[in-house]
Amino acid sequence: MGQNSVIVLLGASGNLAAKKLHRRGLLSDKLKIIGFDPTHMSHDDFIEHIRSCVDQSSPELEDHFKAFRERCSYITINQDAGDDSFVELKKRMESFVEGDETQNRHFYMALPPSIYVAVSEQLRRNCYSEKGDSQIIFEKPFGHDLESSVELHKKLEPNWKESEIFRIDHYLGKEMVKNIMTLRFGNPMFGALWDCNHIDNIQISMTENIGTEGRGGYFDDVGIIRDVMQNHLMQIMALTTMERPGSFSAEDLRQEKARVLRLVPPLEAKHTLTGQFIKTKDGKHPGYKDDDDVPEDSRCATFCTTVAYVRNARWEGVPFILKSGKALSESKTEIRIQLKDTTDAMLRNTSHNQLIIRIQPNEAVRLKMNAKMPGLELRTVETELDLTYKQTVEDPDIPEAYEALLLDAFKGDYSESVSEEELEASWKIFTPLLHELEGNKNVVPAPYVYGSEGPDGLEEFVASYQVQK
């Protein structure tokens, strides 16, 4: 980003956008940041808003912030003035250009999805860079189902090329998700085992120990499947199952992810268990429907586990058990790869080998394996090889997910941007299930107590897709 660049934060009044650009001082001297939002704020108000959202706990970070604020400015959008505010934005950006200098423009859309299209049209009409690159950056959700996702793409297509659209799935920026390819393709011992001949099942889970925390009205329109599974878990599954790409270029990587996702058949309700959390017995933690913004008859799932398959020779018959939920016993995201059982001909009472990739918290890779119990008898004991980053790597420098993704976006590296092909393939997997669950009023999520492991029958459901000792 050494050349003249501008980042426009649309929706800059929220603290989400402000947090993502301040940490390491990696931005070039020629980069400017413009907040662009309907909230009326002066320049000083905008700087104070950013100050309240960023870490200044050390003198070094305070110095970074002092330099950071010098590149920031703010424009209040007049929503009743048509294109006038966008024309003002264009003039502001042009004021940073010297002579024949080119300028790259990045528009970060921290906005409700309902106005993506209208705002993107105004940006293209008034603010597109004629002498440099222009880019719009979106966060999920990208549509509500397959039909709406395709429709969104069609409406963006006349104004923005696919190479100018960066779709953020922040899980692709997490250190351990980025590490999946290195583990797979940088270690022959794993590569040799990475197929249906050796793996019995793979569990990919993301759970939270908090509920909807006042966001029930928003969440009721989305549900756990759209919020987490169709995007985050599908991206993790794609990285886990794809074939080795020809290179780690954006084009090759995204093609392989899309290719494997197209091999996943639509999910079925008969292989799915949904739930909705209820309040604890002592009433300390409220239930989902206790939120004033949630309808009393809501059938929105706050928990879901479902089973996917990949129809190719590598993964034939291997169940991928996907699980996500709110208000559960703990917050964690992990991939648990369970290998097939050993024969009992020589050793008895052995445990399954498991490779566990802990994405968060406490990033780690652990390998569960069998060893001989010390002593005169031939007895086995389960042991574990543990690479917990914070214990193994001295002062691990683990960047925040958005930090990594936004820097990639600004550099024009699209390897961690969700492509339109990946998005379409993912929605094809989940849309039939969503329509079946939401269209049938007889399908009601099973209740589970806030802070529990999930609905009754969960353990039996998961065990039915695993090898039994």
Largest sheet: spatial strand order: 14-13-12-11-7-10-9-8-15
- Main structural class: alpha/beta
Number of helices: 16
Strand element count: 15
Description:
By secondary structure, the chain is of the alpha/beta class. The longest helix has 20 residues, at 420-439. 32% of the residues lie in helices and 21% in strands. It is built from 16 helices and 15 strands. The model has no long low-confidence stretch (mean pLDDT 87). It has helices spanning 15-19, 43-53, 59-69, 84-94, 116-126, 146-156, 175-178, 180-185, 188-191, 216-220, 223-241, 250-261, 389-392, 401-411, 420-439, 458-463; strands at residues 5-10, 31-37, 72-76, 104-109, 134-139, 165-168, 199-207, 272-278, 303-308, 320-325, 332-339, 354-360, 364-372, 380-388, 446-449.
Features:
about 475 residues, nine-stranded mixed beta sheet, single chain, about 30% helix, alpha/beta
Write the layout of secondary structure elements.
Blueprint: E1 5-10, H1 15-19, E2 31-37, H2 43-53, H3 59-69, E3 72-76, H4 84-94, E4 104-109, H5 116-126, E5 134-139, H6 146-156, E6 165-168, H7 175-178, H8 180-185, H9 188-191, E7 199-207, H10 216-220, H11 223-241, H12 250-261, E8 272-278, E9 303-308, E10 320-325, E11 332-339, E12 354-360, E13 364-372, E14 380-388, H13 389-392, H14 401-411, H15 420-439, E15 446-449, H16 458-463
Parallel strand pairs: 1-2, 1-4, 2-3, 4-5, 5-6, 7-10, 8-15
Antiparallel strand pairs: 7-11, 8-9, 9-10, 11-12, 12-13, 13-14
